Amino acid sequence: MKYPGMIDALTLHQNVSYPLDVRGASEGQEAHIELRPDEVLPGVAERVGGLRRPQFLPIVSSHTLAASLAQKSTGKVDGFVFEASPAGGHNAPPRGELRLNDRGEPIYGDRDIPDLQRVRDLGLPFWMAGGTGSAGGLRAALHAGASGIQVGTLFAYCEESGLSPAIKHQVLAGVAQGKVRVHTDARISPTGFPFKVVKMEGAKFQDAERKRVCDLGYLRTAFRNLTGKFDYRCPAEPVADFVAKGGTVAETEGRGCLCNALLANIGHGQARPEGVDEKPLLTSGDDLLSIWKHLGERARFAASDVVDYLLQGVRRA
């Protein structure tokens, strides 16, 4: 709720503060992250004056959250991206009690589908994401009143993307051969949110046999231990370390190291002293499996091919 107001303040080079969620903190132990622009860049306000404000476009999964943000945020909300569960990366958990299918994936229902009439009633532009990255998806989104769509998977596998070419081409070949599936893993992410994982026969992706190392820490959470000390922990770090910091063994079960894996995805996996390099762990939306249905069976494609394909639905309308 405070991000829009912080953006407004930063465009004027004003100090900002945001509360940090610290597990185990008691009343009076609240922590805040502060940024003082003049300390980081002395004299910047006098030299450049006010900055152009970037748009604030939060990614949400429900019309209820969108309405709350529009009404209660400290500054202007410029629009929304509505991301459904077929989207790659992290997914919002299902609303209500968590239920899993026989593959261990979260089950989504009607409550997880935003009411687009209520979305339109907010009077703000919105974009649809998750399963909409197709010519038909764009056409349907525009017909529903959206300003457009957010496309991830198609662009992720184009030649210009930052994914390692070897991994990219291996997965595309696997899709063509029917060797790939996309699994919504309810446990692997240290954040606790479901995370889409590409599974492929014969691929050397990160698995449960990885030796636990937490040396990047992008997904760590802050906590205060019994002595009141402020520290960080991650359920994907070595189990003994996590338990020593007040966590439980149950919290560590099934977790993977997304930090190291996602860097390996773009060719920057760390080389370990024991001679074992960090392995990738690829994420994609559910529509990865139908990518050739959209783009034709070709070995490679460019971002321009994706744009041309997406606009087919609009040009024919």
Task: Give your account of this protein's structure.
With 317 residues, this protein is α/β, with parallel strands linked by helices. Helix content is 30%, strand content 14%. The strands form 4 sheets. The chain has a 4-stranded parallel beta sheet. Strands 2-10-11 form a 3-stranded mixed beta sheet, with no helix packed on it. The chain has a two-stranded antiparallel sheet with strand order 1-3. A hairpin with a 5-residue loop joins strand 10 and strand 11 (230-233). Helix 6 (135-143) packs across helix 13 (303-315). The two termini are 38 Å apart. The model has no long low-confidence stretch (mean pLDDT 92).
Give the count of helical stretches. Answer: 13
The run of helices and strands is HEEEHHEHEHEHEHHEEEEHHHHH
Low-confidence region ranges: none
Helix content: 25-40%
Please state the CA-atom Rg, rounded to the nearest Å.
22 Å
What is the average per-residue confidence, as pLDDT, rounded to a whole number? 92
Major sheet summary line = 4 strands, parallel
Distance between the termini: 38 Å
> How much of the sequence is in beta strands?
5-15%
Structural class: alpha/beta
What's the count of strands? Answer: 11
Main sheet strand line-up: 4-5-6-7
